[in-house]
Amino acid sequence: MASAGPPPIPKAPLTQPLRRPQERALDESFDLDSGFVESVISALLVQDTEQIQSLVVDLHHADMADLIERLDRDSRRQLVDVVSTDFNANILPELATDVRDEVMDALGFDHLSVTLGELDSDDAVYVAGKLAPDERVKLLERMPLTTRMLIEQGLAYSEDSAGRLMQRELVAVPSYWTVGETIDYLRSTKNVPDKFYAVFVVDPRHRPQGMVELHRVLTSKRPVRMKDIADKDHETIRTDMDREEVAFLFRQRDLTSAPVIDKSGRLIGQITIDDVVDVIDEEAGEDYLKLAGVRAGEDSSLYRTIMATAQSRFLWLFLNLGTAFVASYVIGVFEDSIVKLSALAILMPICASMGGNAGTQTLATIVRSMATRELNASNAIHVAWKELFVGLINGFLFAAITGTLAYLWFGDGPLGMVIGVAMIINLAVAGVVGMAVPLALERIGADPADSATVFVTTVTDIIGFFTFLGMATWILL
């Protein structure tokens, strides 16, 4: 007769599911919980070191960076002082530039030189590259020779190049090695990167002959030679390749990692998907900020001083002031008409505003399509016709709406007709200009996202005012 098993142990009722200490600091959106942040601030105010350490000890380095950014300047320094002995080096690349400078000042050069040595080479190069030249020299002087050489070699490449982006740590094995030898090497060596997704197969001159993704290494039999399972159609990246090109390649080929070669074709590093995600995020953010007239980087930081932020935005606003005077000049040409018919002064901003908004919509779409390379020479004419017809369709629809409202408001049928026709013309022009301006800027070597907005809104304002006021003068007066 089979014996019965032990009786089940009754479970104590739980009012809420158990969470790991790190999760208790986060809300449901994986953002820092506001109550947790208040607890840290309270502990900092009373200088309760033990409480501070117990609160932040289990935080992920990205969440710790978020916490540091949410504190004021004095609290940041105090928190860094408390955790300095166990400071996670991976926090530094996650911080905004201005906040990172404060944290590095709090750590000091001696401590910072040790901390940077704990980072992957690409992250160490990134952080060192954000320092002022004199500070960088002081820092590198305190670092071990090997680490200093890796950082100096990385900094020698252009800031937007693959050489600056690449990670020196990688796994490369001879082509004649077997899977078994490779696995034994990975288990025994201490030089394996913290994260890697593929093993690179190289010839005696250390030139990449192929790459084997980790799942193939783990699922292949030990006697199989690495060269027999290597993907020989892998993409190689030159050190001088622009990082936007790298991001496009990763997105186009669904890569997780790719080898980086020098001018002689030797394997010197790798780029992994986590770095490419950062590039895509930064480039998208830069284009978005440029469309609004804000320079990416320090100028867009929430942590800059009031005067520094105001100064960085002055030039763009000054340029906008100049274009506004041009539009005002067009209005001045029709001053007598506006005096005779005051309704023109009331209605003329509507046409110009609608044109500006329509042009900005087209501009945003075109700039994005250029960045993702969806727009090219082969389809540019087709897209131009499309934008023209989109402008005409919306123009006719809004002409009917605006003309009707103008007639009901002022009881003047011809006035409604004039603003309707002006609306059609301006929205059609806005579609064409919104596409033509970024293409023209790219043709002359300028960044389409950098100044296109000013040109588009200026043109649509001028066309809107000139069309509406000119037709009103001709037809109504």
Tell me what the structure shows.
The chain is mainly α. It folds into 3 domains: 21-165, MgtE N-terminal fold; 172-291, CBS-domain; 305-475, SLC41 divalent cation transporters, integral membrane domain (Tetracycline Repressor, domain 2). The protein has 22 helices and 6 strands. It has helices at residues 21-24, 34-45, 49-56, 61-70, 73-83, 97-107, 109-116, 121-129, 133-141, 145-155, 162-165, 179-188, 214-219, 226-229, 243-253, 273-291, 306-333, 335-340, 343-371, 380-410, 413-443, 448-475; strands at residues 172-174, 198-202, 208-213, 237-238, 257-261, 267-272. The strands form 2 sheets. The protein has a 3-stranded mixed sheet with strand order 1-2-3. α17 runs parallel beside α22 and α20 (380-410) runs antiparallel to α21 (413-443). It is globular, with a radius of gyration of 31 Å. It starts with 20 loop residues before the first helix and ends with a helix.
The SSE string, one letter per element, is HHHHHHHHHHHEHEEHHEHEEHHHHHHH
Strand residue percentage: 5-15%
Which outline best applies? globular
Lateral strand order in the biggest sheet: 1-2-3
Which ranges are low-confidence, i.e. pLDDT below 50, for 5 or more consecutive residues? 1-21
Properties at a glance:
3-stranded mixed sheet; 63% helix; CBS-domain; Tetracycline Repressor, domain 2; 477 residues; disordered N terminus; 22 helices; 3 domains; mainly alpha; globular; single chain; 6 strands; MgtE N-terminal fold
